[in-house]
Write a structure and sequence with these properties.
The structure is a single chain. 55% of the residues lie in helices and 0% in strands. With 168 residues, the protein is mainly α. The mean pLDDT is 86.
Length: 168
């Protein structure tokens, strides 16, 4: 079943990428997937638990690399429940969960290899300058969210962070 994408607008809406970006990412994703599968095979042979050669067995609901990449990109773009994801790709929710957790690290490794992952931790001012190189605007979300605390003093102390004036 999978995604029946008609045009570039729909491709962006469902995966977050244009068709050209998807086509550029696909060979790198495939290479990372093959490397991961080969490592898994070698570990299985060494431990004696591997029964088939690579490529053996049933092909599953995501037989092509393009469908595997669409599957994981669709999940991260839309964040459906596993019931919805499974229905969209004609598989049980448990298989949708299993496939997502198998393919997510492969997508992550691919994006790291292509140097497309955003910076998550910046420990020095030099690291911040390097991360901002080429950008002309920085947005920081520093919104403090309201927390509805109990009127009981003992319960309020449990949630007290120490940031504000002391509770009396």
């Amino acid at each position: 079943m999978g995604l029946h994408i008609r045009d570039d607008r729909q491709m962006k809406a469902l995966t977050g990428l244009s068709q050209d970006q998807f086509d550029h990412l696909l060979p790198f994703f495939s290479a990372t997937y093959e490397t991961t599968q080969q490592k898994t095979y070698e570990v299985g042979v060494e431990s004696g638990t591997r029964r088939r050669k690579p490529g053996g067995g049933s092909k599953g609901k995501l037989p092509t690399m393009a469908e595997k990449l669409q599957f994981v990109l669709y999940y991260y773009k839309t964040y459906p429940t596993f019931d919805v994801l499974g229905t969209q790709f004609a598989m049980a929710r448990s298989k949708a969960h299993e496939n997502l957790h198998k393919l997510s690290p492969i997508l992550y490794d691919t994006l790291v290899h292509l140097d497309l992952m955003p910076y998550r931790e910046l420990s020095t001012p030099e690291a911040l300058k390097a991360a901002l190189q080429g950008g002309d605007r920085l947005l920081i979300d520093a919104t403090e969210r309201a927390y509805h605390r109990s009127q009981e003093a003992a319960k309020q102390r449990e949630h007290y962070s120490g940031k504000k004036n002391s509770i009396r």
